[in-house]
Each structure stands twice: as structure tokens, then as C-alpha cells.
TrEMBL record:
<feature type="domain" description="ABC transporter">
    <location>
        <begin position="5"/>
        <end position="234"/>
    </location>
</feature>
<comment type="similarity">
    <text>Belongs to the ABC transporter superfamily.</text>
</comment>
<dbReference type="GO" id="GO:0005524">
    <property type="term" value="F:ATP binding"/>
</dbReference>
<keyword id="KW-0547">Nucleotide-binding</keyword>
<dbReference type="Pfam" id="PF00005">
    <property type="entry name" value="ABC_tran"/>
</dbReference>
<keyword id="KW-0536">Nodulation</keyword>
<dbReference type="InterPro" id="IPR050763">
    <property type="entry name" value="ABC_transporter_ATP-binding"/>
</dbReference>
<keyword id="KW-0067">ATP-binding</keyword>
<keyword id="KW-0813">Transport</keyword>
<protein>
    <submittedName>
        <fullName>ABC transporter ATP-binding protein</fullName>
    </submittedName>
</protein>
<dbReference type="InterPro" id="IPR003439">
    <property type="entry name" value="ABC_transporter-like_ATP-bd"/>
</dbReference>
<dbReference type="InterPro" id="IPR027417">
    <property type="entry name" value="P-loop_NTPase"/>
</dbReference>
<dbReference type="InterPro" id="IPR003593">
    <property type="entry name" value="AAA+_ATPase"/>
</dbReference>
Length: 308
């Protein structure tokens, strides 16, 4: 299968210290790949190099087989990029801005109106065509940012923390839009929020301290990181000692009077034992769920491995 994008042993040094070291990855299919890393991990550096706005110190970037360094204009035609700080012109209307972006992408003049119409419809901004960008909400500005990234119909879209700074409703809308645009192209999406990557992506690349610490499918990641705590909500909770008496339970933290996080030794049949104990001892269990926040602990563990 031909790769849409291939990074080969990318390293980058800004001044004296290395921001990323020996990053390699290949994407050959449509869908969303998540680049997950905490602040300063090296996500933006990787994305900026991938999109040809920063020249790497070492390594190569190929987009649809085209070497970014050797043929940047050709390679960039295949990429749409929404940087962390979207390059929007506040005093232009949506139409003026998208027309300008299509020109920058060297699209033939005659093809621009249809491309603008398609991008606006896909991003749900057609009704704001004549509105100044400064008068749009944060969520709609981000949609305009995504529209400029897809206007030239590239095979790869790179989105650097696209939901950062949006309110909860806007986040849901922008995530839905990203899912939609990934149906017929590859999308690389960076985030520092594990649950967001789990929700959206079929593949995950975790980056820490400038190095890839995990790269596989989302399913493999979820299997790899078995949770070690469950969250219980009870009407009549017992004392911590009663929970600790159950085989496999290592710790019980009361979050509220009725909500407790129960840590266990990894034996996944713990829920069954907790439910049985609840019935026998009358704890009136209302809810029990695998504690997703525990995955963040695994993220920390994987990140620490890269520094050893
Ligand atoms: N222009 C620059 N000059 C010097 N160092 C830089 C520059 N840009 C980034 N760095 C450093 O490179 C490292 C990686 O930064 P980068 O912005 O790629 O991380 P990130 O994962 O995108 O983080 P964030 O989410 O905070 O943007 C950090 O240590 C950062 O301080």
C-alpha cells in the first residue's frame, strides 16, 4: 500500500537542545491518527516539519512519495494544515479569506468558487459567507480554519490541537466535523487529552520528550493499558476497611460520601466481587464503572519509560 505520509528518522534542534529525536511513522489509510503528548512533548514541532513550515535538522518527510525538502511546493499541495494558532485574518469575510487561501494554494482560478462552496458546506459555515471573521465565535473561527485546510482537497489534513480553547459545545461540534472530514482522507490530530484521542482516533502515536513512546491502533492501546481502578457509587457505602477486605482491592479513596474509587491489583474480575459484596452487605450499589482516568496514569508510565 502506498503511504500518504512517511516520516523517516526526524530530529529537530532549535538552538542547543533537541525538541524531537528520531521520529518515524507512516500513514497509509484514511481516518484519524492521534498524536498525543503533554505540553512541550514535541507535537507542534513534528507537525510544523511535516507541513513544511519548519526545516528539520535531520530526517525526511514524504507526502504521497514526494520529498518535502526537495519538492516543497508539490508536497504541500497534498497537505492541509491548521496550526495551533490559526492564521485567520480578522478583517476579511469568510469568503474573502477562503478565496485568498485557495489562491495561496495555487488553485486554478476557475476551480476556486466550487472549492469554496464545497469547503463551506462541509464545515457548516455557508450561512456566514459574508461575515467578518472577527465577528464569529471561537467554534466558527475554528471551522473556518478547517475549511482553509481542506479547500484544495488535499489527501492529508494536519490539525494541531484544534479543540484547544473552545467551550464544551464547540468542542463536540468541532470533533464531529473532524470525524466527518476524515471519512475520505487521512487526518493527523494532536491533543494533550487522552480521552479526546480515544474518542476520535483509530490509531495513536504517543510522543514524550521528543520521542515516540507508543504507536499502535487504539484497540491495542486500550488493551495494553488495562485499568487498575473502578468508580463505585453507593447509597449505603461501607467503611474503607470492608472494601479492603475484598480479595484484590489495594486501596479505597472516598471522593464524596457516596462515591469511592477502588484500586485493585489488575485482576479484571474485581467488578464481579465488588457487586457480590454489595448485594450481600447491602451497600445499595447504584453505579460501577471502569475508571477511565486511570489511563492517564499509564500515559505517565509510558512517558517515564522514554526518559529512562
Ligand atoms: N521556536 C523555538 N525555539 C526554541 N525552542 C522551542 C521552540 N519551539 C518549541 N521549542 C521547544 O521544543 C520543545 C517541543 O515543543 P513543541 O511546541 O513542539 O511541543 P508541543 O508538544 O507542541 O507542546 P504544546 O502543546 O505546548 O505546544 C519544547 O521544549 C519547547 O520549549
Amino acid at each position: 500500500m502506498n503511504s500518504i505520509v512517511k516520516l523517516e528518522h526526524l530530529s529537530h534542534r532549535y538552538t542547543s537542545s533537541w525538541a524531537i529525536r528520531d521520529i518515524s511513522m507512516e500513514i497509509s489509510q484514511t481516518g484519524i491518527v492521534g498524536l498525543l503528548g503533554s505540553n512541550g512533548a514535541g507535537k507542534s514541532t513534528t507537525m510544523n516539519i511535516l507541513c513544511g513550515v519548519l526545516n528539520q535538522t535531520e530526517g525526511n518527510v514524504f507526502v504521497n512519495g514526494i520529498n518535502m525538502r526537495e519538492q516543497p511546493e508539490l508536497a504541500k499541495q497534498e497537505i492541509g494544515f491548521l496550526p495551533q494558532h490559526p492564521p485567520l485574518y480578522m478583517d476579511l469575510t469568510v469568503d474573502e479569506y477562503l478565496g485568498y487561501c485557495a489562491g495561496l494554494r495555487m488553485m486554478p482560478k476557475a476551480a476556486i468558487p466550487a472549492a469554496m462552496k464545497e469547503a463551506k458546506e462541509r464545515c457548516g459555515i455557508a450561512h456566514y459567507s459574508k461575515r467578518l471573521i472577527r465577528n464569529l465565535s471561537g467554534g466558527y473561527r475554528q471551522r473556518v480554519g478547517i475549511a482553509q485546510a481542506i479547500i484544495h482537497r488535499p489527501s492529508l489534513i494536519v490539525l494541531d490541537e484544534p479543540t484547544n480553547g473552545l467551550d464544551p459545545n464547540q468542542i463536540i461540534e468541532v470533533r464531529a466535523l473532524i470525524k466527518e472530514i476524515a471519512t475520505d482522507r487521512a487526518v493527523i490530530f494532536s491533543s494533550h487529552i487522552l480521552s479526546e484521542v480515544q474518542l476520535l482516533c483509530k490509531e495513536i502515536k504517543m510522543i514524550d520528550n521528543g520521542k515516540i513512546v507508543f504507536a499502535d491502533t487504539m484497540d491495542a492501546f486500550n488493551n495494553y493499558v488495562e485499568p487498575h481502578s473502578v468508580l463505585m457509587h453507593m447509597e449505603n457505602p461501607p467503611a474503607a476497611a470492608a472494601l479492603l477486605a475484598i480479595e484484590g482491592v489495594t486501596k479505597a479513596d472516598f471522593l464524596t460520601e457516596r462515591q469511592v474509587r477502588v484500586f485493585f491489583n489488575g485482576d479484571q474480575s474485581i467488578s464481579e466481587r465488588l457487586i457480590t459484596a454489595s448485594v450481600q452487605q447491602g451497600w445499595r450499589l447504584r453505579e460501577i464503572s471502569i475508571d477511565k482516568t486511570a489511563l492517564d496514569e499509564v500515559f505517565k508510565q509510558l512517558s517515564n519509560q522514554s526518559t529512562q
